[in-house]
Write a structure and sequence with these properties.
single chain, 97 residues, alpha+beta, four-stranded antiparallel sheet, two-stranded antiparallel ribbon, 2 helices, 22% helix
């Protein structure tokens, strides 16, 4: 199943509305899962967007996609997470050193 089909199935099931969320990136993993990153079309701004990350299981036999995890976040949330996971990494307004 290709990435476009995964996105279509999630939209058709009502998991993610493409009227609200724009697909930014899809990464299919070797274990039959996919990481999908969306950006909200209505909430947030160009300078401060709102993102949705979906971790989904691709079930080829049933031609289905099942959401395993779903997280919405903003850039500041991601910077906070990076600081917590990698405390020795200095983060300055989105730039790591």
């Amino acid at each position: 199943m290709d990435a476009r089909e995964v996105i279509r199935i999630l939209h058709d099931k009502g998991e993610v509305s493409l009227d609200t969320w724009k697909v930014i990136s899809v990464k299919k993993n070797d274990d039959g899962t996919a990481d999908i990153l969306y950006r909200n079309r209505h909430v947030g701004s160009d300078d401060d967007p709102v993102y949705l990350w979906i971790y989904a299981n691709i079930v080829e036999e049933d031609w289905d996609v099942r959401v395993l995890e779903r997280i919405t976040f903003k850039r500041d949330d991601l910077l906070w997470l990076i600081r917590q996971v990698f405390p020795k990494v200095k983060v300055y307004k989105g730039v790591t050193k």
